[in-house]
Amino acid sequence: MSSEPHIFFSDVNERQGSFLRRTMLLGGATVIGGIALVGRLAQLQIFQAEEYATLATKNQFNFRLVPPPRGLIKDRNGVVVAGNRPSFRVLVVRDETKDLDQTLDLLGQLLPDTLERRRTIIREVNAAPRFSPVPVKSDLSWEEFSKVNLHAAELPGVMADMNEARYYPFGGAYAHLVGYVAKVSDRDVKAIRDKGEEPPSILFNPGFRIGRQGLEKALDQDLRGVAGGNRVEVDARGRVVAEDAAGSRPAVQGSEVVLTIDNDVQQRALEVFGEEAGSCVVMDIRNGDILAMVSSPSFDPNLFVSGVPSSVYRALADYERRPLTDKALSGTFAPGSTFKPIVGLAAMKRGVDPSRRIVCNGSFYLGRRFACLGRHGAVDLRGAIKASCNVYFMTLATEMGPDAIAETARDMGFGQTYDIGIPGQRAGLVPDREWRRKNPVRGDGKWYPGETPSYGIGQGALTVNALQLAVYTSRIANGAKAVTPRLVKSIGGVEQQGGAFADLPFAPDLLKVLRDGMEAVTAAGGTGFRNSQLGLGAVRMAGKTGTAQARNYGAGSRKGAGRPWSQKDHNLFIAYAPTDNPRYAVSVIVQHGGLGGGTAGAPRAREVMKVALLKDPEIRARIEQAGFEAPEDAGAREAEARGAADPIEAPTVEPVAPPPPEVAG
C-alpha cells in the first residue's frame, strides 16, 4: 500500500513558490545574522578595541601596594631615635599552599617559635587578600633565613625576603615619648569608617604598621609617607609570573621629624632612676624647648613592632611600678613642698611683705595640730622656702583661702595641658571653692577651713605632673614670661614655631624673692644642699625639695624603712641653673621613693642638670675659662648620698581631703 503525501499542491507553480519563500526567509535570516556578527566584530575590534585591551591588560597585570619607609625621628643634634633597619622575614601566600596546616607544621620545624603564634598566623593569613604575602615572622637570624631558603622546595607558598622594619636604637629611653608602631587592627579601620571616610588601601597590607603611642601616633600621617607599588604579571590563577619594573612606582618615605630633645640628656635622665619609678623633665627656660622627658621604669618599644607576646605584655601591665604608664604626662601626684613658692607668690601678689616674719614653734593649730618637722623660729618668706617651714605657708594659706592660691597656681602652669604633640596628658587638679561645690564630700559642697593648711603645703586634693612642675620652675627662673613647652622642632623641614610667650601677671621683683629662697635651699643649711652641688665651680643650681604623703600614717612613723614600696612617700625636686643666669629647669618625681626630696630627688636632678649644662657651649666655655675641670662621673657620690635621709617637710596628719592618686591609670 503506497503512502500518500500530506500536502497537496494544485499545480507545480504553487509548490515552487512555497520553496522560494522558505529559501528567502532562511537566506534573509542568515544575511541579517551575518551583518550583526560583522557589526559586533567591528564594534569590538575597531570601536571598543582600546577599552577591551585595557581590561585584558588589567587581567594580565596587577598593581601591588608597597608600604613606604617610615619617616625618621631625630633629636635636636641629628641623632636618630626612631629609624628603619633591614629585616629578614618569612611570608606565606595562602593560595599557593597545598595545605596551610601542613605548611605551618613544616615551617614550625624550622622556626619553632611560630608554633606559639599558630592561631594568630592562621587568622591573619585567612583574612589577607588573595595571593597576598602575609608576614609570619620578622627579624630572622641569618641561620633561620638560610634554613627557610634551603627548604624552599618543600614549602610551597612560603618565601623569605628582606624588608625595612621600624627600629628604636635607644630602647626604653624614648618608649613613652616617641611611642611605637604596630599592626593595623580592625578597630583602626572601624575608627576611620566611623568618621565617614574610606580607609586607604595600604592599611590592608599585612606588612604595614601604624603609630600606636606617643609621637608615632600623634604624627602618624606625617611619618607614614606615600605607598608605592609593584606592577606584576599574573597568570589566570592570579600567581605572579613576572614583574614590570617600568610600570612600578617607588614608595615615598615619610617626613622627617626633629625633636627639641637632647639624646644625651634624655638617656641620662632615664639612667639615674635605676630601678626606681618616677619621671623627669628638663626645659630650656628661654624658649620652652624640652631637652628631656622620661618615665621610669620603661620598656623596649622594639618588642611591639612585630607583635609582643601576650605573656610579655601581661608581665609589663601587671608590674606594680607600671612601666607602660607615661608618668611624666599622665602620672599625677601631690607636689608637696615644691608648691610652697606658689603660696608665697600668691601672698605677695595680695600685698604681703616678703620680709614679714612668722614664728614657727613646730606646730600649726586650726581645729587640730598640724606638725612642722622642726622649730624654725621667726622666718621670712626667703627663709621659709629655705627651711621648707610648714607653719609659715599654712599661716599664709589660711589668711588667703584656696581661691587665691588656685589663681596663682594656674598662672604658673598648673591645672592645664600643653600642646606638645603628644596626646594622653592629664591636667591634674587645682582645687578651689567652686571645685568643692561641684565635688562635694558626702553631699557637702562647702570648703572647710581645715582643708586649707594642707593645701598650703602642696597636699590635699592638689595634683600635678612632672611637665607642669618643669613649666612652673621655668617661669620662676625666667622671671618675666609665661614659658610654654615645645617638643617638636620641625616636621619635613618646616620649623614648628612656638607662640610668643605672654607676660607673667607678677612683678619681676616678686619672682626674684622666690629665686632667692630657692638658691638658699641649695646653699649651706638648705634642705637640698647636700645632694644639689653640681661640682662645676661657679655654675650653681637652685631648687626646692618636696615630699608628698601617699597614705594616712595616723600616729605611726612616716619613715620608709620596712614599709612596702606602695606605702612609701613620693619624693620631688625642682631646680634651675645657673643661678646667676638661668638657662635650664628640671623637675624630678620619685614615686614611693621613701626618702626626702633632698635625698631621692636632688641627686637625680643634679646629674641630669650637669649633662644639660656641660652640653651648652657657652656654659662649658665659662667653666673651662675659669680653669675648672668637671668630674666625669658623680655616680659614686650619688650612691653615697642616697644612704642618708633629709628631713621630711610634709605634715604627720592626714589632710582633710582624700590623699592624691599615685599614678593615673
From TrEMBL:
<keyword id="KW-0573">Peptidoglycan synthesis</keyword>
<protein>
    <submittedName>
        <fullName>Penicillin-binding protein 2</fullName>
        <ecNumber>3.4.16.4</ecNumber>
    </submittedName>
</protein>
<keyword id="KW-1003">Cell membrane</keyword>
<keyword id="KW-0997">Cell inner membrane</keyword>
<dbReference type="InterPro" id="IPR017790">
    <property type="entry name" value="Penicillin-binding_protein_2"/>
</dbReference>
<keyword id="KW-0645">Protease</keyword>
<feature type="domain" description="Penicillin-binding protein dimerisation">
    <location>
        <begin position="66"/>
        <end position="243"/>
    </location>
</feature>
<feature type="region of interest" description="Disordered">
    <location>
        <begin position="626"/>
        <end position="665"/>
    </location>
</feature>
<feature type="domain" description="Penicillin-binding protein transpeptidase">
    <location>
        <begin position="278"/>
        <end position="610"/>
    </location>
</feature>
<feature type="compositionally biased region" description="Low complexity">
    <location>
        <begin position="644"/>
        <end position="655"/>
    </location>
</feature>
<dbReference type="Pfam" id="PF00905">
    <property type="entry name" value="Transpeptidase"/>
</dbReference>
<dbReference type="GO" id="GO:0009002">
    <property type="term" value="F:serine-type D-Ala-D-Ala carboxypeptidase activity"/>
</dbReference>
<dbReference type="Pfam" id="PF03717">
    <property type="entry name" value="PBP_dimer"/>
</dbReference>
<keyword id="KW-0121">Carboxypeptidase</keyword>
<keyword id="KW-0812">Transmembrane</keyword>
<feature type="compositionally biased region" description="Basic and acidic residues">
    <location>
        <begin position="634"/>
        <end position="643"/>
    </location>
</feature>
<keyword id="KW-0472">Membrane</keyword>
<keyword id="KW-1133">Transmembrane helix</keyword>
<dbReference type="InterPro" id="IPR012338">
    <property type="entry name" value="Beta-lactam/transpept-like"/>
</dbReference>
<keyword id="KW-0378">Hydrolase</keyword>
<keyword id="KW-0961">Cell wall biogenesis/degradation</keyword>
<feature type="compositionally biased region" description="Pro residues">
    <location>
        <begin position="656"/>
        <end position="665"/>
    </location>
</feature>
<keyword id="KW-0133">Cell shape</keyword>
<dbReference type="InterPro" id="IPR005311">
    <property type="entry name" value="PBP_dimer"/>
</dbReference>
<dbReference type="InterPro" id="IPR036138">
    <property type="entry name" value="PBP_dimer_sf"/>
</dbReference>
<dbReference type="InterPro" id="IPR001460">
    <property type="entry name" value="PCN-bd_Tpept"/>
</dbReference>
<dbReference type="InterPro" id="IPR050515">
    <property type="entry name" value="Beta-lactam/transpept"/>
</dbReference>
